[in-house]
Structure to design on (107 residues):
């Protein structure tokens, strides 16, 4: 009877050892899967951060481009205004020159 109890205890110990080994393997597998998921999530976060930085840079460039366009429009407006002033001055000068020539001919 003692030998049967020893054999039964050995079988139980062996079954427990196998069960413990299976649990350890399941834990190791789960731990590995979690590490892979965390690594994938970190990679996605880094990519999202990079994209966010790129979008901020693009937004800044768009703002600078819009400001440059506004400056250009203002310069064109100033140029047009100055051109009109120059044309008016030229007409005035021509008129004055014409008056001067008339005065010279009358004298």
């Amino acid at each position: 009877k003692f030998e049967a109890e020893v054999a039964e205890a050995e079988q139980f110990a062996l079954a427990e050892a196998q069960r413990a080994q299976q649990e350890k393997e399941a834990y190791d597998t789960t731990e590995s899967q979690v590490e892979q998921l965390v690594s994938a999530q970190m990679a996605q976060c880094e990519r999202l951060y990079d994209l966010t930085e790129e979008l901020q840079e693009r937004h800044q460039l768009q703002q600078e481009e819009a400001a440059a366009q506004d400056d250009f429009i203002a310069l064109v407006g100033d140029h047009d205004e100055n051109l009109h002033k120059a044309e008016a001055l030229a007409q005035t000068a021509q008129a004055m020159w014409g008056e001067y020539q008339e005065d010279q001919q009358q004298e």
In short: The two ends are 157 Å apart (CA to CA).
